[in-house]
Amino acid sequence: MIIEQPSLWLRWIYPDALWRMNKHERAVYLTFDDGPIPEVTPRVLDILDHYQVKATFFMVGDNVRKHPDIFQQVKDKGHRIGNHTFNHIGGFRHGIRSYLNNVEKANEYLHTDLVRPPHGWLKWEQYFFLHKRYQLVMWDLVTRDYSNRLNAQEVLWNVRHYARPGSIITFHDSLKSQDKLWFALPRSIEWLQAQGYSFKVFPKMK
Predict the structure, then answer these.
(1) Against a cut of 0.90, is the pTM above it?
(2) Mind telling me the catalytic residues?
């Protein structure tokens, strides 16, 4: 599938981005997009604590500005932080300068070396300049927990069907995902652990 598991041609467009980690290591990289928000992120943290799992949160800068206490909570619990732009803007709708400025504005709050572009799309020139300073992180599996066409059981099925060694798995700590998240996230973690997967976060750039 082009959505749940991006095709090779899509991965070739951004060759220096991370789509999948070491395929020979039985580990996955759990990620969350679009937070932090008080309605969802703290409960996600409680679930991760329960299973002793660390994850990477790709945060919208304006949400961090509005909820600095939750941002600090994520950091204090040892999770990795990523940049998801300041206003969750799409690269195709913005020029190079305005898009890069939006990423930099977010990083004034986030202070991270990781960037995930909203919707997974960038103009090639935006990608060219961003990857000089940041590690771009895409995904090997997007659960589609945000979709109103899927129910919670189908979100869980996506994890069970598409997860593989090295997968970068994307959930969303957002309002439109929360109802499916509460069902699918703990069951996904339990299933992955039962299959012998460990959970890792991305290393720092050198």
Answers:
(1) yes
(2) 33, 172
